Inverse folding.
């Protein structure tokens, strides 16, 4: 499968470090990511793996102590009726504010309580967002706001416009945040753990909402999440991040049915299985602290399949198919043949059987 | 559950009701909830936020005084006892909190955090005895002895939660209330902590009240499960019964809500349960036994029970 849709966002060799008193934290160590029109890409990883930082770089909202050491984020933006390829990292802040943030790329954050202003009615927040990019009267903005609220599934929008965030439930608040994100008709929506703060039953509805909006508006969506269930539900492509690098990338089918990196194996194995009663698989150890450059491969100390080379050099991204790559020395030609853990293989086989039954 | 059986249970909660706020506009967080936990047993309470699951935990440990109902623990009726008696009895109950960062004092060394309970109860005669107790417990939860003199900030999230577990365990409790104790942790660390809790269950025979919104984790740890919604306990039974034969539509919804990590099977349309439009009134419910089981019960009217197919596949 070779994807031919237009590339909207292309991140190349992104490398970012943070200065903190007495040390430098090398948070992003060479990230590559491509987002095409209408597609959904997921970034998966633990806290500190760099998934949020990568997206903050795209939005131009990196904290002041961050330094971009190298790399580019190319985004095609229409300027005076002409498409131009702009490197967002080189563009100045005024440009980003005017043409990119909110307008081209919008973001939905994890906690709707902290991303809404508690002292403003949601109507005013929506209108402010609309008028920040569009020259229109308050009246026009008001009616656009009503439509947005309807679009995200809020009933009685006229009454709701004059209410404050605390008068809404968590799920409703997240719908409002999504409405604000959509207020300037962006092409790219970045969702940073959009459902982590919500209950499972509400999570499902928010995910359904994002999927339906995506279809209707042909949005491209980037999901940042640590929940592989969410990834399986919404994503076309998966990027697994570890210690500031993407260590496995592929379609959902590649990564869920044929995972190759031992870290991905660990993540998949750690999901509690409804039918098994054995001890849950857990990845030993803890994620590395990136104030020191990892010696050899960053995952090596936690990797039961680590080879000698893992302790000396970081694995490059080995290509498995046109869509699927993984950064593990196990894929090197010289490496000994290592099978996936048996319990995971069993689980994958079961998933495939369920999938086959489901398709039928 | 019959009364004879309950008398010998470690913890019995009977008709627990908790109201917050002034009388005229009180919010009822928990309504007439009853359940019991036997020695060494793990009971999982599941429900969404606002369902009252944390309130129940706080009522048991004495952080809230229940509006109505009776809580007895290890032969003491906590809701009737004097403050002194309640404190003594409740000593056998310990709690593990959700966020290990905000539940550990950042200015204290781990040794003093874990030892605080011992100091309050004056359970150790000498410093040496105190140190041995603390170090033993730290090792039990997978921390090294020499980490005892560090501060919480020097630990990772998973390690901090281990400190929280150690603080609960050091008092040799008969019951541990674990309130969303893995929700704030990363996936790979969650598995480590869940395995640790399972090991502790096996080794110490401590009973657990495991409060969580994550059914898959509750299933892993619990012998029995209770499903809460809007302050009502709706369904309770052995873990197997709840998972294999859920009767209440809310339970079914909860079981189906968590997306399975299978990209192809995922695309099924979702069925939503909405209390407002479901036509179910929780206050009309009574406890119905499901099939022949004497452990699996559902809270609804008889008519609802038949409509939901409870009779046919019990």
């Amino acid at each position: 499968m070779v994807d031919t849709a237009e590339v909207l966002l292309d991140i190349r060799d992104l490398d970012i470090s943070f200065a903190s008193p007495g040390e430098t934290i090398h948070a992003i160590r060479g990230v590559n990511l491509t987002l095409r029109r209408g597609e959904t890409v997921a970034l998966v990883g633990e806290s500190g793996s760099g998934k949020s930082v990568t997206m903050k770089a795209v939005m131009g909202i990196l904290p002041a102590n961050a330094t971009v050491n190298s790399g580019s984020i190319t985004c095609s933006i229409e300027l005076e009726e002409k498409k131009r390829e702009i490197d967002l990292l080189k563009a100045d802040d005024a440009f980003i504010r005017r043409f990119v943030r909110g307008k081209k790329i919008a973001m939905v954050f994890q906690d709707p309580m902290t991303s809404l202003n508690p002292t403003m009615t949601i109507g005013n927040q929506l209108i402010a967002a609309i008028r920040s990019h569009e020259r229109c009267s308050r009246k026009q903005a008001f009616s656009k706001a009503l439509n947005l609220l309807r679009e995200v599934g809020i009933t009685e929008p006229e009454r709701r416009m004059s209410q404050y965030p605390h008068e809404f439930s968590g799920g409703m608040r997240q719908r409002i945040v999504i409405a604000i994100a959509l207020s300037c008709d962006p092409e790219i929506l970045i969702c940073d753990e959009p459902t982590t703060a919500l209950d499972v039953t509400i999570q499902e509805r928010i995910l359904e909402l994002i999927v339906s909006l995506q279809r209707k508006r042909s949005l491209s969506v980037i999901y940042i999440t640590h929940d592989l269930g969410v990834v399986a539900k919404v994503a076309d492509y998966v990027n697994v991040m570890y210690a500031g690098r993407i260590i496995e990338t592929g379609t959902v089918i590649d990564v869920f049915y044929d995972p190759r990196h031992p870290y991905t194996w660990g993540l998949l194995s750690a999901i509690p299985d409804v039918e098994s009663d054995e001890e849950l698989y857990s990845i030993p150890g803890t994620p590395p602290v990136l104030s020191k450059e990892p010696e050899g491969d960053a995952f090596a100390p936690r990797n039961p399949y680590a080879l000698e080379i893992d302790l000396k050099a970081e694995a490059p991204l080995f290509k498995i198919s046109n869509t699927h790559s993984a950064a593990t020395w196990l894929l090197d030609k010289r490496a000994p043949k290592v099978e996936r853990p048996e319990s995971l293989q069993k689980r994958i086989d079961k998933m495939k059987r369920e999938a086959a039954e489901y398709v039928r | 559950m019959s009364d004879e059986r309950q008398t010998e249970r470690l913890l019995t909660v009977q008709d627990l009701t908790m109201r917050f706020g002034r009388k005229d506009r009180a919010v009822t967080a928990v309504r007439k909830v009853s359940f019991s936990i036997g020695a060494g047993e793990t009971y999982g309470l599941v429900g969404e936020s606002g369902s009252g699951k944390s309130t129940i935990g706080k009522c048991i440990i004495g952080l809230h005084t229940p509006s109505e109902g009776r809580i007895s623990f290890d032969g003491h009726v906590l809701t009737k006892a004097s403050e002194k008696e309640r404190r003594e009895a409740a000593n056998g109950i310990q709690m593990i909190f959700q966020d290990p960062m905000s539940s550990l004092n950042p200015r204290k060394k781990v040794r003093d955090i874990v030892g605080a309970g011992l100091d309050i109860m004056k359970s150790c005669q000498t410093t040496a005895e105190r140190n041995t107790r603390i170090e033993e417990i730290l090792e039990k939860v997978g921390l090294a002895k020499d980490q005892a003199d560090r501060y919480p900030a020097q630990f990772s999230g998973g390690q901090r939660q281990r400190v929280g577990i150690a603080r609960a365990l050091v008092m040799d409790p008969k019951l541990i209330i674990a309130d969303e104790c893995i929700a704030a942790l990363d996936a790979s660390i969650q598995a480590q902590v869940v395995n640790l809790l399972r090991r502790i269950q096996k080794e110490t025979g401590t009973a657990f009240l495991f409060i969580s919104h994550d059914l898959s984790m509750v299933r892993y740890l619990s012998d029995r499960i209770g499903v809460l919604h809007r302050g009502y306990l709706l369904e309770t039974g052995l873990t197997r019964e709840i998972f294999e034969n859920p009767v209440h539509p809310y339970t079914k919804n909860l079981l189906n809500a968590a997306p399975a990590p299978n990209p192809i099977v995922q695309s099924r349309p979702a069925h939503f349960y909405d209390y407002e439009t479901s036509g179910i009134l929780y206050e009309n419910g009574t406890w119905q036994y499901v099939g022949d089981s004497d452990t699996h019960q559902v809270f609804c009217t008889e008519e609802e029970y038949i409509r939901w197919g409870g009779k046919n596949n019990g």
